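Re: Re: token formats

Sure, here are both.
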Amino acid sequence: METINIGENLRIFIEKNFKNLTEFCKVFGMSVQSLHKYLTNQRKPGAEILAKLSRLGCDINWLLTNQSSSQNQKTELKYISIEDAEKITVPPILSYPILGTIPAGMAEIVDYERFEYFDFDFNPQTHGMLKIDEEFGFSMMPLVGPGDICIISFYDKPKNGDWVAARWDETKGALKELAVDDEDPSKVILLSYNQTMRPIVKDINKVKLWKVPVIIRTANKR
């Protein structure tokens, strides 16, 4: 029978995706001492730890069983009872009525006789939130300003024209509009709404991009 070493699997994941243990602890929000207990199997990761690892891209099934999720997809389907199925909780899709249209310029508001609906599918396992920096959050004003919240998707691939949360050089990042360089597909261009700010051009392999599907404006005064 194959021996499963969760601590060793966790170490492999960290070494593959982070510069060192210290960087992982900083990103994860854990002390090096606590991490050592998981790496040496003195402590087993619970649901909260596993959820955070999953959001960082760790294959939890592989971590716990040595089998990747793709391997498990080939296994025989197992059926569960109705009673067990009713116990499964799924994050809801919030459906909001669209009351009408409102112009960005000078025009008339149009009220809908029958509502359209916008489905807001927010799952904490697949989405996260970032707060716009209070000191360096002015390049996208007045659309977005300091203190506003942006929701990022961990899995939706950004495309040309999308708003994205970008990260590069380990610690640098920004909320920008994504533009694809048609002449050089190896580059991405990050645009500010404030036209006085110069575009940021980065090698596509040296920048991480997360799609921003929703911006939440706070009550802060502009």
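Second one below.
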Amino acid sequence: MAAKKTVIAFDLYGTLLSTESIAHELAKIYDEDKAKRLAALWRRYQLEYTWRINSMGEYKSFSEITRNSLSHAVAELGLTLSAKDADTLMKSYDALHVFPEIPSALQLLEKNKDSVEAYVFSNGTDEMVGNSIKTSPELGPHAARFKSLVTVHGLKCFKPDKRAYTHLVEQVGKQGKESDVWVVSANPFDIVGSRAAGLKAAFIDRAGKGWIDRLDEKRAPVVVASGVDEAIASILKD
């Protein structure tokens, strides 16, 4: 009988891919300071829109939410953006750069490919997530390291809705064995959502502040790591 593999699902945007790296593209349109502020605000409203629409019981695709949140951020900063530049930025969002430790994390997955079953688990649409991985300069060459891409688009909801995590468990074939599934994410809401659904979770704490989310102390992560590579190493020791 083959040894049981450790199932690890990695969040994409903000965990593997740096949404802050879009500032480089924004700097081609605005000055560097405005570009950094706009990148941060864009991400803030992108996430906020998913939570708001979840609460409303409605749905728009993550791609549409990403475009609309860009418009919101631009307006809030009193800037202007042509339709052509908006299209260019949306295409650039499909080619975000990874965080510095991700190459090391990918090497660790390769080294442990016989004992780890890796997935990407994202709010994005299948097309958006697929494009983001294929066109990412660093992730693209390692796309085969992930068994499959699990998205929530077909569910018409976003994380941390419990349906998203139930869907993940079903997609990786672990129904009734939720605690066999790990979610690795830098987003606190994703960690709490995972834990509420019975999964294990590793929080990527790049800011070095530790786990400070206080929504529910019973839903704290099993692992807190400074990077994805460190999280993988800790999970493999569990």
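The CA atoms of residues 7 and 172 lie 8 Å apart. The two ends are 21 Å apart (CA to CA).
- S.
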